[in-house]
Write a structure and sequence with these properties.
It is a single chain. By secondary structure, this protein is an alpha/beta fold. The chain has two domains: about 25-285; about 330-395, no CATH class. It has eleven helices and 15 strands. Strands 2-3-1-4-7-8 form a six-stranded mixed beta sheet, with helices on both faces. It is globular, with a radius of gyration of 24 Å. Mean pLDDT is about 90; it is low at about 10-20.
Length: about 400
């Protein structure tokens, strides 16, 4: 007997969602003047500047109080786009970068977001001039290892993220400021310092407020970027917008135009600072690079540290995905040999779980190669521990093109 339908095709069951749509989730902590509708240290989640304005935080609030609160959020959304999830917390204006990263404030914000925050920026609106040492606020430099400690804590809590610090109040030439890639006893691979500012906007402020850094802009670009992308990608990210009068004149948090300190910019680049700049022959303004506060390290076995933001984001994302796919395997039973070791079939199957994550990342153009290797001597009877190693080869990028050109009378 035949089925009159001729052909019957049923929809298969859909497994767990492997599409990662949370990479843009970001957070922002800002020291602020009092806001009537939003208490200090209260995490909120917003998706646009319209959401922010419901709390009375507007461009007018910034103007009246001579601060940058609405500014950082509006810049975030200008680059990341409306609809992007942003977790925001305001703290007292007396708080500093150091006290913020030392306190429970950031941990509270990270924990309130269901483990989903991928990048966090911390900005301040100081009421008093900072103590400057070697051209930078002393508490800024002291905050870098503390911020790395916060990132380490977040990693242990299974919510790895990158941290941007507002490098406000630059007050020295590039030859005297700290080399962020060579801070003694510090390898802050999860921390970046932003010193760039929209000079024309800063000119509308007075006093200390003129020496701010546009950390909200950089956070927005990072949120918009895919995990393997350099936030300075020249083709992808132009932070200049003439229609919105944004970033028309790039400057530094010294409130000096780039053109005033042009000869110093390469040195700031070499020392690992993040700022906006224009290129001869290319319209617009780009972020200079995706620096972190750590040297480049390659060991004898070819292992590299996360010496760029992109490398760190790739590692964070891979770790999140690997945790997600291996968690269901915990406490399952597997056949073992007489020595309590995995049989080859189970070993290959479990390696395939991790390799599938890497295959998807390769197909998405996020990594060049990835491999899962399980230690066949793992003891599942007594120790009940599966020992696994993962290796990733990231995507490459062009930081500079060097070439020669000649005029010839024949080729």
């Amino acid at each position: 007997m035949s089925n009159l339908n001729g052909i019957t095709i049923q929809k298969g069951k859909l497994g767990a969602n492997r599409t990662n749509n949370k990479r843009s989730v970001s957070a922002l902590i800002i020291s602020s003047a009092i806001v009537a509708k939003l208490a200090y240290n209260t995490p909120i989640t917003i998706y646009s500047t319209d959401d922010l304005e419901q709390y009375g935080l507007t461009a007018e609030f910034d103007a009246v109080n001579n601060v940058h609160v609405y500014r950082h959020v509006s810049e975030f959304y200008r680059m990341a786009g409306a609809g992007t999830e942003l977790h925001l917390m305001l703290v007292s204006q007396t708080e500093t970068l150091k006290t913020i990263v030392e306190s429970e404030t950031a941990k509270t914000l990270l924990a309130s977001a269901d483990f989903e925050i991928r990048q966090l920026a911390i900005a301040v609106n100081p009421t008093e001039a900072p103590t400057v040492v070697k051209g930078l606020p002393e508490e800024l430099v002291e905050s870098i290892p503390l911020a790395q400690g916060l990132a380490d804590w977040a990693f242990k809590q299974n919510m790895p993220c990158h941290i941007f610090l507002e490098g406000y109040h630059l007050d020295g030439a590039s030859n005297i400021v700290e080399n962020l890639r060579e801070i003694e006893n510090v390898q802050a691979t999860k921390v970046s310092v932003v010193i760039g500012q929209d000079w024309k906007y800063a000119e509308t402020k007075t006093g200390l407020a003129q020496k701010f850094a546009d950390v909200g802009t950089v956070l927005g670009v990072c949120s918009a970027a895919s995990i393997e992308q350099n936030i300075g990608d020249n083709e992808a990210f132009d932070i200049n917008d003439s229609k919105k009068d944004a970033w028309m004149i790039p400057g530094l948090s010294s409130h000096k135009k780039n053109t005033e300190v042009y000869s110093q910019l390469q040195n700031f680049e070499d020392k690992g600072y993040i700022f906006g700049l224009s290129y001869s022959g290319l319209a617009g303004i780009r972020i200079n690079n995706d620096h972190v506060c750590a040297p480049v390290v390659v060991d004898q076995e070819g292992n590299m540290n996360e010496h760029t933001i992109a490398y760190g984001r790739i590692m964070d994302d891979a770790i999140r995905q690997l945790r997600s796919v291996y968690l269901p395997k915990i406490k399952r039973t597997y056949p073992v040999d007489e020595n309590g070791k995995l049989l080859s079939g189970s070993l290959v199957s479990l390696e395939g779980v991790g390799d599938k994550v890497f295959e998807d990342m390769i197909a998405s153009g996020e990594i060049s190669y990835g491999k899962t290797t399980i230690d066949s001597t793992s003891d599942l009877l007594v120790e009940k521990e599966l020992i696994v190693s993962f290796a990733i080869v990231p995507m490459g990028s062009i930081g500079e093109i060097k070439g020669t050109i000649n005029i010839k009378n024949n080729i």
